[in-house]
Amino acid sequence: MSVVAAIPQSAERAAPKNIGDRALRIVLKAAALAIVLLVLAMAFEMVRTSVPSMRTFGWSFLVTSTWDPVAERFGAIPFVYGTLVSSFLALLIAVPLGLGAAIYLAELAPARIRPPIAFLVELVAAVPSVIYGLWGIFVLAPLLRTWVQPALGKTLGYLPLFQGPPYGVGMLAAGIILAIMVVPYITAVSREVLLAVPNTQREAALALGATRWETTRIAVLRYGRSGLVGAILLGLGRALGETMAVTMVIGNRPEVAISLFAPGYTMASVIANEFTEATSEIYLSALIEIGLLLFVLTIVVNALARLLVWSVGGPVKTVRE
Amino acid sequence: MTPGVRRRVNVLMSGLAAVAAGLVILPLLLIFGFLLWQGASAVNVDFFTHLPKPVGEVGGGMANAIVGSLILIALAAALGLPLGILGGVYLAESRDRHIPWLARFLADVLNGVPSIVIGIFAYTVMVLPMRRFSALAGAFALAVIMLPIVMRTSEELVRLVPASLREAALALGIPEWKVLLRVVLPAARAGIVTGAMVAIARVAGETAPLLFTAFGNRFWHQGLDQPIAALPLQIFAYAIAPYDDWHRQAWAGALVLIGLVFVVSLAARMATSGRFTGVR
Prior knowledge:
The complex is a heterodimer of chains A (about 325) and B (about 280).
Chain A: H1 2-5, H2 9-13, H3 19-57, H4 60-63, E1 67-68, E2 73-74, H5 77-108, H6 114-126, H7 129-156, H8 171-196, H9 199-207, H10 212-221, H11 225-241, H12 244-249, H13 267-274, H14 281-313
Antiparallel strand pairs in A: 1-2
Chain B: H1 3-39, H2 45-49, H3 63-93, H4 99-112, H5 115-130, H6 135-159, H7 163-171, H8 176-187, H9 189-204, H10 231-239, H11 244-272
Helix pairs in contact in B: 1-11, 3-6, 3-9, 3-10, 4-6, 5-6, 6-9, 7-8, 9-11, 10-11
């Protein structure tokens, strides 16, 4: 961005004499540092409040699967499993769709219909989670129960993935709802990555006689590869932490089941469901420790994603349109 | 490959990409259609003016939840917007090497932290010390969610202000702070308003961070240090309850909420169209 660089550097570097200028700089810096402070405070608080649980259960918290609030024995395995499986399922559906839509929006669609479609994709992302959940309970789950699951059971029932009674709510419903919810993020970020690919890339390929698709495949997708992986990771980060919609359709049973028809539980939903009911300190602490796990997991995924996305377009959006 | 095959592959892949784009948007139409079909009949005057009826009685409304949501959003905006805008200005203006990079990075990372985790944070710093669920705690959680969004969009839009404007003002000997307040920020106003509205649209529908901060309430709000109702919370509570009448109201609430979110999103889009799209 040359806009800022155009200001003479020497005038900028000199310490401002005006007291208003000095105050302004301090206020602005403080505001920016607030976010650093906030993230640190968050990490500190989550660790502090999950100490009782860490002390009591140690590493066994991460490798046991008992979740018994009455006996006060807690293990996180069913929730970690549910979070990972539902997110993976979501990506399985969302990645091809999201990348396809992004390619269409950035490369192949007629210029006139791009902005309205991009706006509609934004709206898909703007629909509140609880509304997806509502739709999941009353439309998606019955649909799965009466049509999709019996059909899957009949045709692919020999696979352990598609066995068991069709409840409607369960891992499959959670995966589908999550896919619907993360696909607009993957689309939007991938589109930005593709738009950040320099035009000379396209021009070179087109000049050699490549078709639009070949240009996209050879000159654009390959150039933006790492950014696209970042976009997918951002989608994964969303899926891992998505709470309300999943809580409403996953069935909320803390068990590890192979079948996608079976109810499950995720880290985010157990917090949503049980936090206000956690009567003892250790119960609450165990829930917060699950929150801490989720926090660390999403931070790692998001940090990685950001660095990858930035590697294509830089940290500041410079979108050609 | 022969040219014919290459052309056909091109058509096929373009078609598949278009289908993918259609499938991404399809749920929006399905969900909005269902909301209209199921919810429109339950959106009436009572819905906007009455409190929820006790369990078992038919009727009542979500007036308290609508008011509660507006209070929460206003409080969160009062907390999060100024800080976010100032931080964004810093990110756009500073030529420091490390702090802006770190703040930008952490803002993006914070933006990806699940809202339920932010709820836990608000619980430990607000609810535990105050010993009760409160509107303040809910608003704090929402403000934390807004902050990174506002910061990053403000940064982007302050960057779009032409350097010549600023240079002209500085050349007249006007101090920097005045240039910022009177020249740069007004020039970026439309964009900053957009960022603010995008952030508001995002938190308006947030449910998870309010579950154990604002907590919800079946009555009118009773002060900022008390639990308060919120539209998304009420929709959630009604959706998982076993009563048909509550389900109807949940649909109605969802219709109102989605209407609110769409109107704000659309307004955000309008505020910048024409003015900045050329520059971007």
